[in-house]
Amino acid sequence: MKKTIGKRTAVSSAVALAMAATASVAVASGDKDGTSAEGEYLSGDFHNHTSCSDGSTSVRTLTRESLSYLDWFIHVGHSGRGSRNCLISDFLYLNRDSEFNRGLWVNSLPNGAADIKGDPTFERMRTGTHVPAMWRWQSLQEYNYDSVIAVNDDPRFDGKVAFLGLEWVVPGHEHSSNTIATGQYDSIDPNADALAQFEYCFARNSDDTSGGGGQGWTCEISEAGNNKLLEIFEGRPEEGIADYNSTLVDGININDRGDHVKSTAAMIWKQENFPGDSMAVQAHVERQGAFIPDDDEGYNIEHLRDWHTAAPEVAFGFESQPGHQAQPHRGSYNAGRPTSGLWTYGGTGCYAAAEAAKPGEDFDGTPLTPADFVEGGKYPEVDDNEPPAKVTLCRPGVRTMWDAMLSEGRRYWFFASSDWHNRGSFGPMDYEATNDFWPGEYQEQFSYVVNDPSRDRAQQIVDSLRSGNSFAVQGQLIDSLEFIACSGGRCATMGETLTVRPGAPVRVKIRMHDPRGENNSPYEFDNPSLKQIGLNVPINEPKVAQVDLITGEVYEQLSPQDSEYFEPLAPSTTKVAKSWGMGEIQANNRGVSSINYRLRPTNDMYVRIRGTNIPAGTPNERDMYGNPLPDNLTDNIPCDDPACPPHVAGTLDMDVEAWADLWFYANPIFIEVEEDHGRLQAKND
Questions:
Q1: Cα 108 from chain centroid (whole Å)
Q2: What digits encode the pLDDT tens for the residues 246-277?
């Protein structure tokens, strides 16, 4: 446990030990005689960028800065290629088009272009010249990996973990946060070879066919895996050629524009070759709107289901709380893309924070038309040049796309990340931001890491993320959480399953710790959102104002040929079972708040929780039930305190908006009723 969290006092050792001791009764099967393996919740980030792709800081600088906030860090960057030597120090780095060209691989490698492997590739510079570029697989394997791992030897970060990942440019879609832990902490030959081969095989923006510069790499999946693809994509020709192996030439398919089949094959490739060591979490899933063949952008519900159906141990979640939280359009989500849901909802995308309609339709099933997007139409904020099929409408509520996944019993988890590139119009060491926060400065992904001597440190982090025993927090709203469900002396926590008899009493227990003092916000004036309702609360001293317990019934997993497989709206049984407001959330003298709730399930179900510093009914922020409203509405909230920074221009915007509106999201606990297995009901009204 880190000693401090920004400027706030971290949870005391006594509180941490007490909460950990209580949480330790949780076991995956609800076994009365067992206890969970010893471990602790550690905070981390797995989506960020350096000068290896389109970030502004070097690998070492970002890794060091991130670990000053976090306990673990996975460095990623985009697929493809790059001409810049991303190892150059930030403070020495010159413009890549400068007369010195010190930042180019070709001029900084010992043998220049001769050290660049694979099929020839070039990037066009702003000067109009072409410069040799390095394939991303080579930079991962030979350069980026060493820079990340070297930070582990820094005594300042003793006990913390850093390793290498990849923001994969996905065939058929936009991006996905990935890693393969295999080899990265090998005691004899540490390496990132597995991750590099994945990039070579499956990056949409790579046409290298060199086998990894002569390493003999090929990209087949097994016959059983290929048959699984044929089953998933039966009758869906718009997704690509379902017989993936038949598309390979010399062991690789580089003709993958719009090919969702290839992205799903990549999940099977990971699960077959690196089981237990791999992860693929779709990044900012709502940002580019609905999926259109050959558009290479959005994700729909069927694509989340496809990946999870194909490889549940690899594709075990999505990043529905994006980075870029300090941008003018929070999360870089806006109607102009058009983002699914058009905006974020409390800094989270609509797939986990609101209710989505089918792409190209209204909630009543009426097809959208271009007339809906013009002035005087239903949705004039959408560019009228956008095809209606690209638009996914969302509304406040809890029958979310995430809940649709959970209602099938899918162990599919919620994640958040920083997506760090730069601070926008400010320097990296400034406090203000109009683009990004450092990893861990604003968003933290807490996951329960088991101390397992048989698994190296990188594998332990991947294991922890796969387990679902995790929660995400904005702005240090809380720094510890215990969320368990117990019955008959057996308990389960996030990501786990409690088995009970029909109607048996289940006690849901929530304990959360509010770190005392100020959070990482540089601002001290009263929160403009809360001033609307007469509350004077410093923006840098947030308190939990509402906690929601959301429940949903669990049904059989859908088949890819089932019409409901394409339905994003969760069953009508999904609901807020109970909310607790400010008067009911009382912290003791150690800052710990306790909440208890009892239920008697008769059907398979799950429970999940979320919490916020903004009460229900707050104008422009929450509806009457506490659901987040679209974040573009905060433009109606004045930031009129004399200390409000000039870059927000008098309204709640950019980094001030992010610090004003905070959430935490916890992953679900599943409850299985012993005599209810196999139940099949109509999912929706």
A1: 35
A2: 999 999 999 887 899 999 999 999 999 999 99
User: What is the predicted pLDDT for the residue at 121?
Assistant: 87
Q: Which amino acid is at 100?
A: F
φ and ψ at residue 489, rounded to 5 degrees:
85, 0
Nearest CA to 353 among 285, 290, 443? 285
Q: Distance of CA 97 to CAs 82, 131, 133, Å?
A: 13, 10, 14
> Collapsing DSSP states into helix, strand and coil, what is residue 346?
coil
Phi, psi angle pair for 341, to nearest 5°: 85, -10
Length of the chain counted residue by residue: 685
Average pLDDT over residues 626-632: 98
Nearest Cα residue to 39 out of 72, 73, 3, 4: 72
Kindly provide the residue ranges of all beta strands, DSSP E only, lying in 475-518, ordered along the sequence: 480-487, 490-493, 497-500, 506-513, 516-517
CA-closest candidate to residue 407, choices 548, 585, 575:
575
Per 3-state DSSP, what percentage of the chain is helix, strand, and coil (rounded to 5)? 25, 25, 55
Pairwise pLDDT comparison (655 vs 122), residue with the higher score? 655
Task: Kindly state the tokens that stand for 357.
Answer: 């309609």
C-alpha–C-alpha distance, residues 36 and 468, integer Å = 14
User: What residue type is 313 in one-letter code?
Assistant: E
- pLDDT tens-place string over residues 580-600: 999 999 889 899 999 999 999
Rounded Cα distance between 630 and 633, Å, is 6
3-state SS assignment for residue 555: coil
At residue 90, the pLDDT reads 62
Q: Scanning the structure block, which residue is given the tokens 């095989």?
A: 201
Instruction: Locate 635 and state its tokens.
Output: 């433009």
The DSSP symbol for 8 reads E
Query: What value does the mean pLDDT take over residues 655-664?
Result: 98
At residue 611, the pLDDT reads 98
- Average pLDDT over the chain, rounded to whole? 90
Note the pLDDT of residue 99.
Answer: 40
Segment 304-309 mean pLDDT = 98
For 283-287, what is the mean pLDDT? 98
Phi and psi angles of residue 199, each rounded to the nearest 5 degrees, phi first: -60, -45
Burial class (CB in 10 A: 0-12, 13-18, 19+), 359: buried
Number of Cβ within 10 Å of residue 207's Cβ equals 16
633 phi/psi in degrees, rounded to 5: -70, -20
Whether residue 515 contacts residue 10, with contact meaning beta carbons closer than 8 Å, is answered with yes
- The distance of Cα 479 from the centroid of its chain, to the nearest Å, equals 19
Q: Tell me: the pLDDT tens digits for 355-366?
A: 999 999 999 999
Residue 128, pLDDT score: 78
For residues 594 and 596, what is the distance between their CA atoms, to the nearest angstrom? 7
Strand-pair category, 278-282 with 317-321:
parallel
Contacts 24+ apart (CB under 8 A), 381-384: 381/335, 381/342, 381/632, 382/335, 382/338, 382/342, 383/335, 383/336, 383/338
The two tokens of residue 372 are 């809906």
User: Please, which residues have CB within 8 angstroms of residue 563's CB and are 6 or more apart in sequence?
Assistant: none
Which residues lie closer than 8 Å to 534 by C-beta, 6 or more apart? none
**Amino acid of residue 441:** E
What's 186-214 look like in SS3? CCCCCCCHHHHHHHHHHCCCCCCCCHHHH
343 closest CA partner among 355, 329, 356: 329
Q: What tens digit of pLDDT does each residue of 524-578 get?
A: 999 999 999 999 999 999 999 999 999 999 999 999 999 999 999 999 999 999 9
pLDDT at 55: 84
Question: Count of alpha carbons within 13 Å of 651, Cβ hemisphere only?
Answer: 10
Cis ω for the linkage preceding 542 (within 30 of 0):
no
Secondary structure (H, E, C), 381-409: CCCCCCCHHHCCCEEECCCCHHHHHHCCC
Are the C-beta atoms of 169 and 136 separated by less than 8 Å? no
